């Protein structure tokens, strides 16, 4: 008999083999023991340019390419480290102050250990991703050293040693090794001892620092290190205050203000067996103490009322809630509660006697409760809940300004550190407590902050200051604030992206010879009378049209779209950047492009009089607007003219113009009207949103006037044909790629969304809103007219639009065919195809269509469902953010245009609360709140009839405000204390119109 | 959760500290079970396999078309121990994956063995998987080769197998993807890979299995690395066999 011997002992290499054993628990609660091999080696380079020994053994990839060494030979020094130094941060240092490492003034030549990287990834994925980004940027010189795989730096976890202690030891060991290795390297190169850079371990952990000193590793606390730097004061603020703050509080042993969160396992089991619910926490824009959560178990949103129930949840967090007993269910509040109005005079520093709910807040809520209880017809109480845990924080960087009243006068000038309140621009985010030394400097500026933590014993979250954007109300700062707030990528395109552009630059032309590869499978449409119609001043012309009669009496109509996919090839840097940006963002004075200017406004743009590549959809259409056949092809076109909507309208209306281009436009106009009628018959909705245009002075782009947008026939002409192109393309790519077509859907809104509006219309106007189908809704919206008030219909449409779901991009394999429906357009299938210059979805559709007509093979990235899904997810978010940013920009400029002016205008009441109402002014497209206390010096007494939507006041001023009523308001501007925005302020002049 | 395969590009190191062209530790012994006609035990990293051979023996099952064959029948049976993976999982008798592996192995050896020397007989290979950590099929093939040598079944040459993969997944479409040799379990879950088996020192591919999607452009590199790996594997197996041969000649193990 032979016995099996343990093979490990006989292996000569066994000292270099280790294994990593750990236990993990899965989501479903299973415990798994994982065993992994580790191969320890000695050819992992130190990556210092001082070292030649490592260079010889450095690894090469399969192509034999050597990665360049990163750490500079002459790193920067400080007073304490005159020979220069490499930084070696531990995990806590990165967790607390990644912002510091991103700053450009210091923190170069940093060694990131694998141990630290792994730990960071476990603690915070976003921070990990930011760090990976840093290691990729060449100028910051960050090097990831895989210490766990190097024989000399690998450490075994000892019996009874915690994993944190083991990791700290690994960091110190690596520091020590680096130290010895570098001095050897310098000696080998014949340098003197002076030129050996010190490896400085950065840590916030006192114990770790102490041990480092004992082991002879140069180490420094993060704070101490930063104070040695030149611009220490600015940098110091970027360190998260978490630690210190906690220590102070622990000393006081203060009682906790908020209830403790449940443990993760308790939450998970609760959610699983249905006693707890998980959802995204949303704060009401009118009442910061009221949040709502949509959970599958209830059709109505769960309300979360009051600070204690909200329990430190912040807008957007994924939370777990517990439903409260039925006797605590309430109606959604009818009152406006704003944070700054209630807690204006709080002291940011004060910590004693801080209660979760201030007296005034309690009073405000109390009145609410009273009102609900006093009413005989209890109405429709909604289930309420309280937050018991947060699954995922959705904290990001917030833009805001420092609450001036929280800064103490005496230290305004001095450099003493103090705590101030930062009021975020987004009203749904609570005030953030920030410790800073620059209080005096950042007053009156737009600043960027991050939330670090929110402990049970603190009423407000604690954060730290990242950077200042500039003075409040300056164009630069406000625009940047807007872009940051809506997460728009606005930095200039990196070089890697610009390298993807054609080398000819602006001189690029369609090749003359039709034998050129660029002409392959392209139809020559240069002979057609093609023109484009766009808004005035449009530079990125996506689309152009043509029409001509055919001998059989039908028409040939063509929609030609810029062939962006010819220039932006999949998977290069430009494509990656465009897919991240997702869309071009239009602000009043600025356009943030998705693609570099050269493409967007020149090479792709279908400019007149020059030849351009295009992607054409060509139909044969009968005079009754029936499609006989459709055809898609890549082509070369030459646009004859670029019209603005106005010019085109004038030309069409002018009977004396009989040239080919004008008759073609007339044909298109006639056909488009027929198409529109067909769509309307099918139940397409014509919705409305308040649209205004800010006229700016051409030189300074200062706003001078605000105009409501006029609607012209030529606009719907273009729109109809774009819809036609989009729908036909959608059908085509879906038939070619049933699983992976990039489509756009608009879900039917749930009935409950319209309940409120339908009830309001019924009570106030006796009108009925039927919502069972889009056709029904369209018809009943048409019937919502007030003969005395032509604007009433538009008002109802605006309000109905807000009840809708938002349309979204999706990948066809993720939904069933009936779900593809576009509710608003009443189309079975829809996609975006017509604006590839400014939308990434269109670019994907272009690639798919090109593959569907066998023009080119389909790239793998637009064939993989998982990849497409992540693209869709991103562009949906970007699209929404871009819209909001655009609106916010208009809002800002409207405020600026009205600056210093006082105007009286007509408006309509859109919403009535028990202590105020919302008025919409169509002339400026603004909507603003008028609170009772704005009506007169002393706040008038009021009674609110929620059934009839009437608010009556008595006492200091007597008015009666009801829903949908026409009112006259005085518009002036005011700098809003809360958000630091200049905003219009409305005052009620009289009710009942002029 | 430690790092995943996406960090490869940071330092050209894989999850377990290997470079792109390195095999895991490969250990093997033959004649581990005296009762069998031939046996072997093989470890490729943490994948551990025992193989026993019975035969060539007279065909037992009569009836059907197989009975009258003029070649020996190679039968393979794989049993995967419940404790071999991370989760304790019981595999049914007709597990598709297992039966596919059985067929692959059986077809491969039907070609490389001189089965025509043993008409009306069968050669049974029985594989027990004790621990799984990637490259399972390759480990099985290598273990079978050793066990068959131990049993003295005449063969044309060794069948040596290993896996080869690519550093980025199918959809990420990375131009600079490196080929990888001998994937472990985690890598197999995240990356595209193939199993390749070659006959002896030649470049003749006798087994090639790929179940994941990969860009065509990367396939050639993967295959080249895989075939090269097979040669390294052959060296190691050959040493094991020679060591055993020396012992037998010395008479210590008869």
UniProtKB/TrEMBL annotation, chain A:
Keyword Plastid: no
GO terms of biological process kind: CUT catabolic process; nuclear mRNA surveillance of mRNA 3'-end processing; rRNA catabolic process; rRNA processing
Gene3D superfamilies (UniProt xref): 2.40.50.690, 2.40.50.700, 5'-nuclease (3.40.50.1010), Nucleic acid-binding proteins (2.40.50.140)
Domain of life: Eukaryota
SUPFAM superfamilies found in the cross-reference section: Nucleic acid-binding proteins, PIN domain-like
UniProt cross-references to Pfam families, sorted A to Z: OB_Dis3, PIN_4, RNB, Rrp44_CSD1, Rrp44_S1
GO MF term set: 3'-5'-RNA exonuclease activity; endonuclease activity; RNA binding
PROSITE patterns in the cross-refs: RIBONUCLEASE_II (PS01175), S1 (PS50126)
Residues covered by the S1 motif domain: 895-989
CDD domains: PIN_Rrp44-like (cd09862)
Example of a GO cellular component annotation carried by this entry: nuclear exosome (RNase complex)
Location(s), subcellular: Cytoplasm; Nucleus, Nucleolus
Cofactors required: Mg(2+)
Stored SMART domains: PINc, RNB
Coiled-coil positions: 348-375
Family recorded in the similarity comment: Belongs to the RNR ribonuclease family.
PANTHER family recorded: EXOSOME COMPLEX EXONUCLEASE RRP44, RIBONUCLEASE
Protein name from the UniProt record: Chromosome disjunction protein 3
Protein source organism: Lachnellula hyalina
Organism ancestry: Eukaryota, Fungi, Dikarya, Ascomycota, Pezizomycotina
Gene transcribed to yield this protein: dis3
Automatic annotation (TrEMBL), chain B:
InterPro entries referenced in this protein's UniProt entry, alphabetically: ExoRNase_PH_dom1, ExoRNase_PH_dom2, ExoRNase_PH_dom2_sf, PNPase/RNase_PH_dom_sf, Ribosomal_Su5_D2-typ_SF, RNase_PH
Listed GO biological process terms: nuclear mRNA surveillance; poly(A)-dependent snoRNA 3'-end processing; rRNA catabolic process; U4 snRNA 3'-end processing
One GO cellular component term noted in the UniProt record for this chain: cytoplasmic exosome (RNase complex)
CDD domains assigned: RNase_PH_RRP41 (cd11370)
An example molecular function term from Gene Ontology annotations: RNA binding
Domain of life: Eukaryota
Domain Exoribonuclease phosphorolytic: 22-154, 157-228
Family assignment from sequence similarity: Belongs to the RNase PH family.
Protein name per its UniProtKB record: Exosome complex component
């Amino acid at each position: 008999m032979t016995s099996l011997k343990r093979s490990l002992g006989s292996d000569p290499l066994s000292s270099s083999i280790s294994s990593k054993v750990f236990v993990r628990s899965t989501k479903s609660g299973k415990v798994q023991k994982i065993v992994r091999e580790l191969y320890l080696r000695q050819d992992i380079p130190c990556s210092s340019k001082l070292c030649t020994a490592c260079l010889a053994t450095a690894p090469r990839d399969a192509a034999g390419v050597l990665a360049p060494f990163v750490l500079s030979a002459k790193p920067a020094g400080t007073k304490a480290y005159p020979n220069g130094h490499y930084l070696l941060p531990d995990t806590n240092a990165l967790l607390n102050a990644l912002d510091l490492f991103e700053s450009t003034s210091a923190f170069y030549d940093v060694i990131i250990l694998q141990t630290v990287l792994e730990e960071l990834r476990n603690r915070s994925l976003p921070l990990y991703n930011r760090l990976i980004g840093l290691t990729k940027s060449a100028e910051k010189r960050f090097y990831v050293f895989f210490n766990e795989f190097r024989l000399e730096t690998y450490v075994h976890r000892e019996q009874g040693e915690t994993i944190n202690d083991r990791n700290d030891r690994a960091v110190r060991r690596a520091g020590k090794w680096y130290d010895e290795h570098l001095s050897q390297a310098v000696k080998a190169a014949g340098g003197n001892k002076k030129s050996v850079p010190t490896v400085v371990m950065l840590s916030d952990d006192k114990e770790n620092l102490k041990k480092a000193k004992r082991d002879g590793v140069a180490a420094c606390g993060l704070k101490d290190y930063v104070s040695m730097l030149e611009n220490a004061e600015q940098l110091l603020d970027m360190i998260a205050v978490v630690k210190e703050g906690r220590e102070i509080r622990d000393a006081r042993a203060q009682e906790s203000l908020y209830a403790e969160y449940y443990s993760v396992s308790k939450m998970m089991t609760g959610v699983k067996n249905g006693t707890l619910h998980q959802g995204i926490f949303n704060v009401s824009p009118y009442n910061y103490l009221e949040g709502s959560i949509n959970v599958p178990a209830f059709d109505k949103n769960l309300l979360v009322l009051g600070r204690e129930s909200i329990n430190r949840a912040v807008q957007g967090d994924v939370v777990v809630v517990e439903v409260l007993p039925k006797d605590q269910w309430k109606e959604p509040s009818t009152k406006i509660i704003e944070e700054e109005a209630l807690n204006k005079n709080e002291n940011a520093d004060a910590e004693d006697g801080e209660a979760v709910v201030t007296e005034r807040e309690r009073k405000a809520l109390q009145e609410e409760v009273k009102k609900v209880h006093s009413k005989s017809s209890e109405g429709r109480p909604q289930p309420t809940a309280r937050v018991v845990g947060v699954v995922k924080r959705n904290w990001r960087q917030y833009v805001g300004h420092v609450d001036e009243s929280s800064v103490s006068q005496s230290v305004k000038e001095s450099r003493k550190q103090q705590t101030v309140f930062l009021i975020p621009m987004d009203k749904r985010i609570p005030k953030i407590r920030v410790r800073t030394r620059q209080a005096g400097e950042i007053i009156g500026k737009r600043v960027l902050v991050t939330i670090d933590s929110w402990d049970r014993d603190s009423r407000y979250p604690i954060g730290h200051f990242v950077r200042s954007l500039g003075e409040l109300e300056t164009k630069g700062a406000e625009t940047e604030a807007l872009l940051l707030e809506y997460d728009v990528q606005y930095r200039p395109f990196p070089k890697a992206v610009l390298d993807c552009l054609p080398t000819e630059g602006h001189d690029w032309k369609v090749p003359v010879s039709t034998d050129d590869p660029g002409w392959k499978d392209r139809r020559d449409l240069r002979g057609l009378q093609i023109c484009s119609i766009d808004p005035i001043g449009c530079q990125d012309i996506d689309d152009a049209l043509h029409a001509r009669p055919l001998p059989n009496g039908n028409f040939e109509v063509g929609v030609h779209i810029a062939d962006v996919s010819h220039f932006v090839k999949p998977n290069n840097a430009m494509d990656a950047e465009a897919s991240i940006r997702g869309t071009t963002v239009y602000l009043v004075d600025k356009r943030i492009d998705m693609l570099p200017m050269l493409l967007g406004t020149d090479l792709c743009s279908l400019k007149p009089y020059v030849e351009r590549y295009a992607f054409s959809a060509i139909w044969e259409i009968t005079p009754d607007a029936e499609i006989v056949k459709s055809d898609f092809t890549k082509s070369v076109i030459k646009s004859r003219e670029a019209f603005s909507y106005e010019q085109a309208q004038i030309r069409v209306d002018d009977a004396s113009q009989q040239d080919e281009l004008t008759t073609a436009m007339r044909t298109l106009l006639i056909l488009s009207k027929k198409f529109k009628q067909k769509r309307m018959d099918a139940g397409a909705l014509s919705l409305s949103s308040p649209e205004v245009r800010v006229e700016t002075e051409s030189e300074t782009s200062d706003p001078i006037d605000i105009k409501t947008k006029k609607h012209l026939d030529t606009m719907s002409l273009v729109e109809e044909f774009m819809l036609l192109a989009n729908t036909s393309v959608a059908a085509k790519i879906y038939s070619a790629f049933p699983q992976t077509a990039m489509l756009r859907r608009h879900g039917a809104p749930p009935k409950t969304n319209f309940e409120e509006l339908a009830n309001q219309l019924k009570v106030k106007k006796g009108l009925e809103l039927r919502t069972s189908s889009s056709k029904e809704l369209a018809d009943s919206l048409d019937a919502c007219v007030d003969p005395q008030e032509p604007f009433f219909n538009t008002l109802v449409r605006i309000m109905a639009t807000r009840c809708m779901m938002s349309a979204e991009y999706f990948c066809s394999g993720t939904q069933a065919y009936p779900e593809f429906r576009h509710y608003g357009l009443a189309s079975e299938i829809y996609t975006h195809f017509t604006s590839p210059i400014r939308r990434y979805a269109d670019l994907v559709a272009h690639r798919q269509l090109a593959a569907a007509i066998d023009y080119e093979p389909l790239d793998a990235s637009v064939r993989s469902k998982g990849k497409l899904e992540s693209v869709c997810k991103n562009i949906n978010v970007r699209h929404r953010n871009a819209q909001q940013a655009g609106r916010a920009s208009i809002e800002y400029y409207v405020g600026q245009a009205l600056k210093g002016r006082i105007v009286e205008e007509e408006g309509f009441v859109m919403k009535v609360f028990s202590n105020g109402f919302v008025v919409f002014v169509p002339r400026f497209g603004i909507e603003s709140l008028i609170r009772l206390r704005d009506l007169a010096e002393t706040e008038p007494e009021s009674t609110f009839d929620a059934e009839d939507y009437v608010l009556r006041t008595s006492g200091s001023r007597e008015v009666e405000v009801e829903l949908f009523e026409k009112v006259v308001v005085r518009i002036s501007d005011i700098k809003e204390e809360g958000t630091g925005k200049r905003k219009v302020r409305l005052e009620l002049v009289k009710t009942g119109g002029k | 959760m430690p790092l995943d395969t996406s960090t490869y590009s940071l330092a050209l190191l894989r999850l377990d500290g290997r470079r792109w062209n390195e095999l895991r530790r490969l250990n093997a012994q033959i004649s581990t079970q005296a009762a069998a006609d031939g046996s072997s035990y093989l470890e490729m990293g943490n994948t551990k396999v025992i193989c026993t051979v019975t035969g060539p023996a007279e065909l037992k099952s009569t009836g059907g078309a197989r009975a009258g064959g003029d070649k020996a029948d190679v039968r393979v049976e794989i049993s995967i121990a419940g404790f071999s993976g991370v989760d304790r999982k019981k595999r049914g008798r007709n597990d598709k994956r297992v039966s596919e592996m059985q067929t692959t192995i059986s077809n491969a050896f039907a070609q490389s063995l001189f089965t025509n020397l043993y008409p009306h007989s069968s050669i049974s290979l029985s594989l027990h998987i004790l621990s799984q950590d990637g490259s399972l099929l390759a480990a099985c093939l290598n273990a079978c080769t050793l066990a068959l040598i131990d049993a003295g079944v005449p063969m044309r040459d060794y069948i040596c197998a290993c896996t080869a993969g690519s550093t980025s997944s199918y959809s990420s479409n990375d131009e600079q993807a490196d080929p990888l040799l001998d994937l472990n379990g985690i890598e197999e879950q995240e990356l595209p890979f193939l199993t390749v088996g070659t006959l002896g020192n030649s470049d003749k591919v006798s087994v090639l299995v790929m179940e994941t999607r990969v860009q065509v452009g990367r396939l050639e590199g993967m295959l080249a690395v895989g075939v090269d790996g097979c040669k390294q594997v052959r060296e190691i197996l050959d040493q094991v066999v020679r060591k055993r041969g020396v012992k037998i000649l010395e008479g210590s193990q008869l």
